[in-house]
Amino acid sequence: MINSYQDGDKFTLAVDCIIFGFDNEKLKILLIKRDFEPEKGKWSLMGGFLRKEENLDEAADRVLQHLTGLDNVYLEQLHAYSAVDRDPLERTVSVSYYALINASTTPEINDDGEQYAAHWFNIDEAPELIFDHNAMVRHAMNRLRYRALTKPIGFELLPEKFTMRQLQSLYEAILGEKLDKRNFINKINGLDILHKLDEKDMNSSRKGSFLYMFDELKYNAKVSEGFIFKL
Amino acid sequence: MINSYQDGDKFTLAVDCIIFGFDNEKLKILLIKRDFEPEKGKWSLMGGFLRKEENLDEAADRVLQHLTGLDNVYLEQLHAYSAVDRDPLERTVSVSYYALINASTTPEINDDGEQYAAHWFNIDEAPELIFDHNAMVRHAMNRLRYRALTKPIGFELLPEKFTMRQLQSLYEAILGEKLDKRNFINKINGLDILHKLDEKDMNSSRKGSFLYMFDELKYNAKVSEGFIFKL
DNA sequence: ACAAAAGTGTTAAGAATACACCCATGT
DNA sequence: ACATGGGTGTATTCTTAACACTTTTGT
In this structure, are residues A195 and A215 in contact, taking their beta carbons and an 8 Å threshold? Predict the structure, then answer.
């Protein structure tokens, strides 16, 4: 049974990316409209096939870069989907990844009109997706919520400089609940992983609000001292 | 790029199982000694190849049943490992699963001596494993610790009837730390998901200790009322 | 002067932790 | 009678949650 390779069936392997973004108000997801069969015209996640010379992480990076042009994106593997009939055309096992991209750094999406049209949707207004992609998105949301509480991944979704209010809005969008302003700020400051700038953002109010940066060095130092990030 | 299936490479897909057990004292892992190449004679996880007519969960079930004869085992998918050179003989992508089996229900292991010899190891005394199996085990331990705090999975590893002390020892083994007896019992009782029997286990002491059963109905009712299990 | 968002601490409630003695029984 | 593990409750600390007013400044 396991003592030989010769009798193994072979499979097409795909990656599908759940791409999250944030526009300072709502959590978004990037979807593409399929311009090819099967399920032409329907919305789906961005995906691609694994190639012999790469591993799954690299395939996900490649797919993401093709669509967004972005490199060094936060990507995390989620789950392998393998139902025999999940893809009606051909047996395909797909490994899902979720990506966090900072909407303000994001250049135009590679929407070449030929293969697919890409579009940002509010996470709660996304259309029905093909295959098992709806389940993939639900799963990704759960993981995102969990991760947001145990790793400072939120910063991946924000511009380099951001206000406390933006950070709070992001966490509210991820967790799906309102948070208390003072408690939130106290908690964040208690973590001591932000650098407060002298600069203010004057867009949101007359008074202006101070900008902060995530201090990755401080964070890494704390983690290596055994500090456990917990929001 | 994604608009056709024809140019896709194909891959051998495997599942590898991290099989945890508990002997009332230590957390154990079931490993097999390979009697075939590559890496003949070395210890590894139990694995097998995915077949066309099944999905990954089914493949993991099959592999596990072949080894242990057990059905209805708790199995959870963990991660897809896909390094190009992870298996020196042939490009193989492997999806890891962890399994929890109740050592007392476990019949003899299917150790047929021809293909492999299976052996239980204390988790902290396990030998070096082939390929990336060491990483798979580390990953599985982390997931097990997390799950143990948020789902009553511990009960999968115990006999149907068990004492509080057994339950506590199990959690201590999983979490790798000593717990306070009174606090532990208070917490467990606070969850109100156990059924206390009139029966006593007379093996562990002269006085005897009451046996308990996990009440799955109560648990499910609580969960569907929105109760969040948190140990 | 007022509208609109920023900024700032304290108190109360709840959760987690530390801790020590008596009980039942077989030998 | 004693040795062994079983069983039980309270006080303290820490963490989390609730809560309201003043500041700044552009119009």
Answer: yes
What is the model's pLDDT at position A1? 45
Q: Does residue B37 sit in helix, strand or coil? A: coil
Nearest alpha-carbon partner for A87 in A149, A24, A131: A131
Q: In the predicted model, is pLDDT for residue B7 greater than 90?
A: no
Strands A161-163 and A194-201 come out as unpaired
- In tens, the pLDDT along B63-74 reads 999 998 998 999
**List of domains in chain B:** 10-150 (3.90.79.10), 159-224 (1.10.10.10)
Two tokens, residue A31: 């979807």
Kindly report the nearest CA distance between residue B46 and chain A, in angstroms.
Answer: 9
Q: What is the DSSP string of A66-117?
A: HHH---S-EEEEEEEE--TTSSSSS-EEEEEEEEE--TTT-------SSSEE
Whether residue B5 and residue A56 make contact (CB cut-off 8 A), yes or no, is no
Distance, CA of A135 to chain centre = 15
Chain A: closest CA distance from residue B130 (Å): 15
Spatial distance between the Cα atoms of A192 and A187, rounded to a whole number of angstroms: 9
Phi, psi of A11 (to 5 degrees): -135, 150
* Cα–Cα–Cα angle for A180, A184, A190, rounded to 5 degrees: 150
CB < 7 A contacts with chain C (nucleic strand): A 163-165, 181-183, 185-186, 200, 204-210; B 180-183, 186-187, 206-208, 230
How many angstroms separate the Cα of A145 from the Cα of each of A65, A93, A158, A177, A194? 24, 26, 16, 11, 21
pTM for the full model? Answer: 0.94
